[in-house]
Amino acid sequence: MLYGAIEAGGTKFVCAVLDEKANILEKTIIDTLNPDYTMGKTVEFFRNYDIVSLGIGTFGPVNIDPESPEYGTILNTPKLNWRNFNLIKYIKSDINVPIIIDTDVNAAALSEYKMGAGKGKKSVLYITIGTGVGAGFVSEGKTLKGLTHPEMGHILIRKMEGDDFEGVCPSHGNCFEGLVSGPAIEKRCGKKAQFLPENHEVWGYIADYIGQALMTYTLVLSPEIILIGGGVSQQEHIFPMIREAFKKHMNGYVQHRVLDGDLSQYIRYPENGQMAGLYGAYQLALQAHEDSNK
Amino acid sequence: MLYGAIEAGGTKFVCAVLDEKANILEKTIIDTLNPDYTMGKTVEFFRNYDIVSLGIGTFGPVNIDPESPEYGTILNTPKLNWRNFNLIKYIKSDINVPIIIDTDVNAAALSEYKMGAGKGKKSVLYITIGTGVGAGFVSEGKTLKGLTHPEMGHILIRKMEGDDFEGVCPSHGNCFEGLVSGPAIEKRCGKKAQFLPENHEVWGYIADYIGQALMTYTLVLSPEIILIGGGVSQQEHIFPMIREAFKKHMNGYVQHRVLDGDLSQYIRYPENGQMAGLYGAYQLALQAHEDSNK
Q1: Pair B151, B86 in one domain
Q2: I need a labelling partner for B233 at 20 to 30 A (CA). Which of A25, A85, A158, A275 fits?
Q3: Which of A123, A150, A224 sits opposite B220 (nearest CB)?
């Protein structure tokens, strides 16, 4: 049995065909240009395989409510030619298989829950810190959806004393994303994060703000594990600093053995690495096929 | 069929017997003293009725994981004689019916979801602002649980310029609860909230901080409706101020028709009022009975 998976990102679409054992049989990468080009290539790719279902983890904002007539529609993205474009309808007009769509970060959280660092846990928070900041959450097998979908990257953070950086978020200035994203670090320091020395003072700020945000997510969602992916998280040296900031802010308030010690089992790297999104889309495809047989 | 419901609060236990139509047939109030007294009286009350199941919405922190051997145990509460006391085991040794226990705020959220302002919504956030600040969340019929349970009242808030109040939270000083709870208002102003005039400057701070917290909850959980109960929320005049603060901080980032306009349908009073907790316990009892018949 073959399943289709699409990781629909802002710069590229990764499309793959997988079997029941999560083996990737074929994979292609398509630039995210206009919908006609990118989706045309996408459909062309999948047309060659007899897939039974398809899963999509996409950039957003996007309508992920299966009961809505607009299910699968990209919403007010800055990518103007994708606004109001419906991914599901476009694909179904050509390849009529069951499709489930979710956010890229919900998909990544799902892959870690099903086949990564969250296996055996009841809930997983997956946060990506890179060009943007976003997070997905899975509890008891279900991704978190609601009025729209979570936009956890934009929570307000308390700035450290002495930090007068005004942030880069067009909507909130110095919200979490506005302070810790790749572009924020670049604007603050005049060079990209990967070119900064490990002892640069900016890492103290970044680690504190990430620790604060994770404290908020723990207080609100109570996840069993927190996984951090994305470009900024490549800076391994900040993980102990993040865990320390988390502990400092939480100050022992939530008590659980997992929160004792150095937090190295609670705040961690994802296991599926760069594949988290694509594997998540694959998990959505498995779900779509299962649902269609009910 | 008769169902038992307990709203286990820090100052009193409200116990009731209800029928299938949520009619309260009998009700009693017991002071929260030591477990022997309070639980003795509780069991004595229910012994007179042939209840098929029991639901408990309780103060915390508490173990609400049905798969844990410590399910039903009160954890590190400041009420020392309740620490490590297991409510379920105590009751079951006398009245052996299926029992479900959850936090008081999760129970309240569930009652609003099933039979209140959240009826027909997919998810409900219920927040209480009074002596303490807590929130419960229900999505697709399930209350949010995790590593422990949410402790949403303790998220960090950004203080307004000019506000030098240090807060009253023993763990975090000026976290959300430390700034907006009843005791915080009393300490700041020298008198209880209900005796302050509507034009007191403190309400500007309180409304801003509540608006900030609700923005965070919306970004993290994306609830379809937010209900505010508890003593401080009796100050009706702050609701428009809270909605305005929410809009100011959110700055249009999450787009949905429910978030347009004056937010009077999004940020609201609970419908079950003072009964939210007890009705929530009743819903847990219905669930316990249903589960036992599976």
Answers
A1: no
A2: A158
A3: A150
Q: Domain holding B65: CATH number?
A: 3.30.420.40
In a domain, residue B290? The reply is no
> Does A172 contact B256 at a Cβ distance shorter than 8 Å?
no
Q: Interface pTM (ipTM) of the complex?
A: 0.96
- E strands, chain B, are 2-8, 12-18, 24-31, 51-58, 99-103, 123-129, 133-139, 142-143, 225-229, 267-268
Q: Chain B: give the shortest CA distance to residue A89, in Å.
A: 21
CB-based contacts of A290, cutoff 8 Å, min separation 6: none
Please indicate, yes or no, whether residues B128 and B248 belong to a single structural domain of this protein.
Answer: yes
Work out the number of other CB atoms within 10 angstroms of the CB of residue B28.
14
- Beta bridge mates, B225: B124
Assigned domain for B141 exists: yes
Residue A131 counted as domain residue: yes
The distance of A160 to chain B (nearest Cα, Å) reads: 11
Give the count of Cβ contacts less than 8 A between chain A and B.
138
Residue A25: is it exposed, middle or buried by C-beta count within 10 angstroms (0-12/13-18/19+)? Answer: exposed
Contacts of B171 in chain A (CB under 8 A): 251-253
Residues A34 and A133 grouped into a single domain: no
Enumerate the β-bridge partners of residue A5: A16, A55
Indicate whether this model's pTM tops 0.90: yes
Whether A181 contacts A232, CB under 8 Å = yes
Reported as a single tens digit per residue, the pLDDT across A217-266 is: 999 999 999 999 998 888 999 999 999 999 999 999 999 999 999 999 99
In chain A, the residue whose alpha carbon lies closest to the alpha carbon of B215 is A155
